[in-house]
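fyi for ur records
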Amino acid sequence: MRANALLGGVSALLAWTVAAGSAYAVNGSPTWSIVSLWPGPGGTQYVSSPRMAFDHYGTPAVSWSIVDAVGIAANQVYHSQQTPLGLWSHRQMASGIGSGLLTSVSYDRAERPHVAWLNSNGSLNASFNFGASQNLTAAPAAATALPSLSLRHDLAGNLVGIYAGSSAGQIGAITWNGTTYSRALLTTLPGVSSVRSAALTIDHRGLRHMVLDAVLQPSGARAVVLASEPANNAAWVSGVLTTADAVTGVDITTRGSDGRVAFTYATRTGTLSQLFYAESNGSTITTATVSSSSTAQYGGVSLAFDRTDGQPAIGFVDATNRDLLFSFRNPGGTWTTGVVDPDISLTSPLLGEPIFPSLAFNEFGTGWPALAYVGGNGDLRVAFDPPAPEPATAVLFPAAAVAFARRRIGRGGQS
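which gave:
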């Protein structure tokens, strides 16, 4: 493990470009500023799907990796975090052949990061607060063809994680006892032959819930599957929400204001591609269609809530036009969708695996969103919808630093 020097020095602070006009977000219209954190490695290497997170002081961070598609050169796992001056510090967590096909990051209550990564041989590694890497050796082994990995912290401050197992329908759990990581079988989903993608959330009671892109057996149909952990240590329950020709993205989270579990998913049937948002009131699920198209192909969804107004937002891709999109629900219930970046990478050179964006909101004070993703030339990018600086001090903030000024108007138009 080593700490890398800041890339670009002060030039990185000024390397922001405004992707949608020069004004800051007003009356709920996002205006995106985009920074490139790492140039595209080129050759046989590529940047893996990054995972975006904020600590509770509003500091953004990304876990990610550089992967060699041929499997000859060493892969590199990184944790990148922004400093209060707008610079980005890049810390290498691991280096080795086959390391870090997929990463995940989550912060504890003391703002210390847990970073985990899945390797090409199915093993898992994790590091607490940049300490020594630990190998999670317990069975079952993680799947390698379509890896899934997700870390979260519950309200009690406990680390909770999941990954897809190597056997039919298996989901494994990752835990931390304050000293050591461990993993074990969490549940086996009946009627599922393989899990292509899985996302985890924890409700206010500390119970875990998942949404999965799964292949059903024996039909081989693609399905959105929901799974929940009941109270009193009862067995997990699961069910098929919908089937489609293809499921192109799933995600799930919990709204902090009321503890409701919400999820999003994208499907394609024939030429029709659709993006859905759903939330549960504890007994029923209400589903809304966010967007439908016969020309676009939606996927790579990432769901988060804006703490300013309690409304959901979704980052996702249009594979047809290579667009990164952002959709948010207004307090009136309507959804607004716009382009964040019109030139992104959609698949990795390794088996054509999808490269998904990751959305998170700043939880310190008023919320503002950030998306981590891979740009069209293979570079690692982060897009912010920056808060507007105070009028008297606006001239003191370069574009990269406005993220630390107080936001005056939320995306939903609320003060």
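Confidence is low (pLDDT under 50) at residues 1-27, 389-415. thats all i got for now
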